Every structure is written in structure tokens, then in C-alpha cells.
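Project outcomes to date are best conveyed with an example. Our students and postdoctoral researchers have been running inverse folding experiments weekly, and each run begins with a structure described purely in C-alpha cells. The record below, which covers 348 residues, was selected by the lab manager from last quarter's runs and is presented without edits.
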């Protein structure tokens, strides 16, 4: 440790997404390569001398206590803990959350140092990992509300890579063995041989950490919710969700110096007849065990919905990932003229 392969991989992964603006301190971290990155981890972040850095990922994160604040973070997975190196704008934007983000070093504001806030979740405190629909995000849950973090990767590959590395690291932990017999086959334990469908999507790791995956009911619930928003015009049986993706809605802000683009996180859902944008709560559901009452907001809140038949054209940018799409709809909204004429003039 560190192997040449690890250093190369961590260097490749150490890239901030181009559409995200971060503080100077995180830009400094993103500029580190190879051995400098490993040394930075051991000198400035690692809490134990003999822990090893195993994985690095840049992702937007949400905390259970500040569910409306999405912040960019460099996520570092070691053999002892998960470290979230956070953009310091989080602390400045939410001074009223001082009980959660203790900012003791306020006298450093005017110094030449660039400070970052680092949130640590020890692997021994980890209880469960909830993987979101289509691997677009995952939620890490510990013992208390302070230890619930959602990583919005918006990328199934990044989610899968992190989960794989996390499972590998958890296997190194010395915990009492799981009560289940080891020789049981995964499919015989969780599957129904008659139907071939999996009944339970909960995988208990040998470290006793639960990995919970969405089951078919979640898609069914989502389809039912979407059908409700369509005013019941669609038969639920024929309603198919073709695409579910975490995206950003771009709002252009007229700035004094230049036109800035404000990115608002949205969940885009495409059915065979409609295009929907939802505000989704990525962190409160499923409810953690210590939750006394349900969250103030529903999991899905409709932000916008348009019929595909009203879609006039789709404009595509030429840049590489992330790709920008502009949907241009007709001005007439929710007006099926022929149906109205029939009802008003020829019907009873």
C-alpha cells in the first residue's frame, strides 16, 4: 500500500464534475495527483495511522438534518471510515444550523488558509445502505440523525463502484459473525424458485450491515403516483415508466457580469404519454428507526408535467457529459380542443 493501480485509479477519479462550482479548498484537493493525494489523506484527513485509502469519489451529498441543502463533497473511503470533505459554503449558508455544523475556527476567516469541513462516519457505526431507484443515489445510515448521508451520484456506475468497494472494506472489519448459516445460497435464501422473482431485496453483509435495494413495489407506487398526477386519464395497467433519472433543471439568472445558470435538482420521469419533473426527498425515506414522525414533505412533489403530444422539438447541446437538453412545448397547455368541442357542442 499504496499499489500503483490504486494510485492511478484514485488520480483518475479525482475530478470535479464540470458543471459544479466548488470552493478554493476543494479545487486544491482536485488538483492533487498520485502520491500527493495519498499523503494529503494521511496528513490532513485520516484519524488512525494504519488506515488505508481505498476509494475516492466526487458526489453531491445531502444530510438528514439539512435535507434542502445539496452540497458538493469529495468522498473518501478508507479501511476505517467514510470521510466527506465538504464545500465550506455549506457552513456559511446555514449559520442557523450551528448545532449541527460547529464552526469554532471563525477567527481563521481572514487567514491565508483554506479550510474545509470534514464529516466522518466510522465504518463501525454503519448500520445500513439504501440504494435508490436505478442506482442513481444511495443513503448511508448510522446510529443517529447526524449519521445519515445521501450521496447523489446521478450515475449508476459511480454508485456501483462505491458499493463494491464499501463491501470489500466492510469484510475486513472484525465483527461477530452473522447468525445466518454461511453455506446458504443467495438465490435460494432470497428468491422464490416457482416464480423466479426475488421477494426480499435486503442483503445482510457478513459485517451485519444491511444493503437494501428497491423492489418492484417502489416502481409500482411511483407509477400510481404519476397516474394520479395525470388526473386519472390513463389506465394504470398501460402506464409504463420508461425513464427515471436524477437531473438538473437549468434556470438562467441575469447576472451583472455574466449570465449564470442556476441548477435545480429534479427527478425526471418519462412515461409513454407524459414528461414529469418531481422534487424528490432523497434522504427521509425509508424512515429511519429512530424517526418519531413522518417527514414534513412527501417523497415526490410534482414540479412540472407536460404531455409528449405537446412537445414541439428537443434541442441538444454538443458538449460531452453532462448533456444539456432543451424541451420546447407548444403554448397551448392541457387543452385537448377536439375533446372539449365534442363535450360542449355535441355531447349531453
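After processing, the design step wrote out the following sequence:
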Amino acid at each position: 500500500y499504496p499499489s500503483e493501480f490504486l494510485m492511478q485509479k484514485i488520480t483518475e477519479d479525482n475530478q470535479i464534475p464540470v458543471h459544479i462550482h466548488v470552493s478554493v479548498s476543494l479545487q486544491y484537493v482536485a488538483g492533487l495527483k498520485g502520491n500527493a493525494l495519498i499523503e494529503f489523506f494521511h496528513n490532513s484527513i485520516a484519524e488512525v495511522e494504519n488506515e488505508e485509502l481505498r476509494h475516492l469519489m466526487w458526489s453531491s451529498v445531502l444530510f438528514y438534518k439539512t435535507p434542502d441543502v445539496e452540497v458538493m463533497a469529495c468522498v473518501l473511503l478508507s479501511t476505517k471510515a467514510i470521510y466527506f470533505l465538504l464545500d465550506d459554503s455549506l457552513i456559511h449558508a446555514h449559520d442557523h444550523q450551528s448545532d449541527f455544523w460547529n464552526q469554532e475556527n471563525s477567527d481563521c476567516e481572514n487567514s491565508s488558509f483554506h479550510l474545509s469541513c470534514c464529516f466522518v462516519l466510522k465504518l463501525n457505526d454503519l448500520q445500513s445502505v439504501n440504494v435508490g431507484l436505478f442506482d442513481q443515489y444511495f443513503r448511508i445510515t448510522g446510529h443517529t440523525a447526524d449519521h445519515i448521508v445521501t450521496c447523489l451520484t446521478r450515475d449508476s456506475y459511480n454508485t456501483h463502484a462505491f458499493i463494491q468497494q464499501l463491501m470489500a472494506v466492510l469484510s475486513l472489519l472484525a465483527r461477530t459473525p452473522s447468525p445466518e448459516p454461511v453455506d446458504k445460497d443467495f438465490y435460494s435464501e432470497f428468491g422464490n424458485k416457482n416464480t423466479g422473482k426475488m421477494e426480499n431485496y435486503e442483503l445482510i453483509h457478513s459485517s451485519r450491515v444491511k444493503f437494501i435495494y428497491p423492489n418492484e413495489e417502489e416502481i409500482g407506487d411511483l407509477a400510481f403516483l404519476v397516474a394520479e398526477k395525470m388526473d386519472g386519464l390513463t389506465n394504470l395497467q398501460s402506464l409504463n415508466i420508461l425513464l427515471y433519472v436524477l437531473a438538473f433543471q437549468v434556470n438562467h439568472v441575469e447576472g451583472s457580469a455574466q449570465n449564470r445558470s442556476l441548477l435545480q435538482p429534479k427527478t425526471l420521469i418519462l412515461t409513454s404519454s407524459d414528461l414529469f419533473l418531481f422534487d424528490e426527498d432523497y434522504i427521509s425515506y425509508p424512515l429511519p428507526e429512530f424517526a418519531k414522525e413522518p417527514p414534513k414533505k412527501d417523497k415526490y412533489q410534482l414540479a412540472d408535467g407536460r404531455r409528449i403530444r405537446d412537445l414541439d422539438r428537443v434541442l441538444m447541446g454538443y458538449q460531452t457529459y453532462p448533456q444539456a437538453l432543451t424541451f420546447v412545448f407548444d403554448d397551448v397547455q392541457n387543452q385537448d380542443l377536439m375533446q372539449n368541442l365534442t363535450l360542449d357542442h355535441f355531447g349531453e
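The longest strand covers residues 66-78. The chain has two domains: 4-175+200-213, 216-329. The training component of this project remains on track.
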